Amino acid sequence: MTAFTVRLPDDTANRLDQLAEKLDRSRSYVAAQAIEDFVARQEWQLAEIEAGLAEAERGEFANEQELAAVIGKYLKPTG
Q1: Cα-atom radius of gyration of the chain, to the nearest Å?
Q2: pTM, rounded to two decimals
Q3: How does pLDDT run along the chain (79 residues), one tens digit per residue?
Q4: 41-63 as b/e: b if 16+ CB within 10 A
């Protein structure tokens, strides 16, 4: 396991300490979990963007009917 130093604003460090106390965990544990979650979320988001760009490069776009069907799921009927 690698250890390294991170500089945080005092307010963020205080909030981290408060959260760690409420969770009955160490500051280090909570910070490591936060970093792991951030990295996983960023990896997922970038992979989805790359997949979308690859689809676009292949010319795989939704047609007008497919787009209307998706949008229609989220619109409330008027009237």
Answers
A1: 21
A2: 0.72
A3: 899 999 999 999 999 999 999 999 999 999 999 999 999 999 999 999 999 999 999 999 888 999 999 999 998 877 6
A4: eeeeeeeeeeeeeeeeeeeeeee
Tokens read off for 27: 């500051």
DSSP secondary structure of 31-61: HHHHHHHHHHHHHHHHHHHHHHHHHHHTT--
Q: Are 25 and 18 contacting, i.e. CB atoms less than 8 angstroms apart?
A: no
Among 26, 21, 37, 27, smallest CA distance to 6 is for 27
Amino acid at 73: K
